[in-house]
Task: structure prediction
Amino acid sequence: RGAFRSGVTRPASWRRRQLTALLAMLRDGREALLEGMRIDMNRDHATGYFMELNMVEHAAQHALDHLDEWMALKTVATNLVNVPGSSALKSEPFGAVLIVGCWNYPLLLALDPLVGAIAAGNAVVLKVPSDMVPRTSKALVELCKRYLDTKAIKCLGGDVKMNQALLKERWDKIFYTGSTNVGRIVYQAAAEHLTPVTLEMGGKSPTIVGKTSNIDVAAKRIAWGRFTNAGQTCVSPDHVFVHQDVADKFIQKIKQAVTEFYGEDARSSEFYCRMINQRHTTRVGAMVTEHKDKVCHGGAVDVSGRYIEPTVIMFGSDWKEFEASKAMAEEIFGPVLPVAVYSDYRSVIDFVNKHEKPLSLYVFSNDKNETDAFLHETSSGAYGVNEVVTYLSNHELPFGGVGHSGVGRYHGRFSFDCFSHLKAVMQRPDATIFDIPARYPPYSSWKVALLGAVQAVRPAWHFKLLRYATLGLVFLVLWGNRKQVATWLHWLIDLTLG
Result:
């Protein structure tokens, strides 16, 4: 907080230096960070780079490219009662902010919001989950100390006790990524000081496969989204509703896709991750063993090895058992994909609306009536047609949940706004001639009449008409005195050019 109060974080030059240093840190520390994730999660370097580091690099470069634009005072219209005068919006940093990252994407979910916090001019404490991903967190903490301004940006490791200690402090903004249950704790802690929060949580992201979809593409994209990072991705397809006409083909194709991605034995694939720990392996493994008879692909669970085979559980048209299963009781957050069959997409819309609002909702269909129905009749943090997960890479789109899946949003300009207070700015002349007496009491009848005329509610086209009429009047006056105007212009040109 002292660093922020000193003013060091406010200039654009400091923000640019830190964002540039962050890019250098990611470049120079790339191998150490990727190797940390390989050891912690068995994540291959290609997935680690493109799913995490590369996305942060894009975020930092995007912020550098647009920083002047984002920081600039934005002029807005001034209403009639404040004429003459000017109105503007000023983005200012909150102050000292806390960012709490998450273990499933330990670099992306820590550094992406950090980009926004730096761009907005804040001092930052960044908490990384060193108890869950120790090698990755250690590398990140050391790199941050080496490359970033440690007086204004501190990166800390630690377990839940560190989180509890940090939440007892007063912050100007808290940004948290993680489970809904812990999100409630963060929200309560923030409420003690009326601290604004952004909560990026999760939820069960439903995926619908319609009969008009390209099943080959749908199966590949869903399998990739579900089983990348062993299903430990908050926006991955959590469960699937597939139309009865294409259900058999979909199951066949998704099995084919899994084998194509990870081979006959995913355990031996360098591209298949592990569960984060044995506790989560046991939790997700119970979802598999509960419906062993319905497993149509995978099903192997090795708790000691933190391994769960990519698993598809086919419930068919038995929605009652599907809904009552352990897999549907909470966000799965593992490589298990429950599938139910539908005949009418209206029933799927009803099912989605009966449950908590998801972080993402995906529809694979080429029927516009179907895709429009899900778009307009359901609520979710994001909505994708014929695609999953990749919307996160578009910095022009916000990322954030709604209801139980999250509070607030970030990415691109939205990250800058997330860590900024938008201040209203008005400037007016103080000349006596502009200090209209009608604003002050006592309010005589003429004052009330004048105020009523100025403050009358009018549709926008009235003001447009007035603007055009004024411009027309100015044109007519100039045209009527065009000889004199020409003389003035000639004099002005002579004066300017000598």
The longest helix spans residues 45-71. The chain has a mean pLDDT of 95.
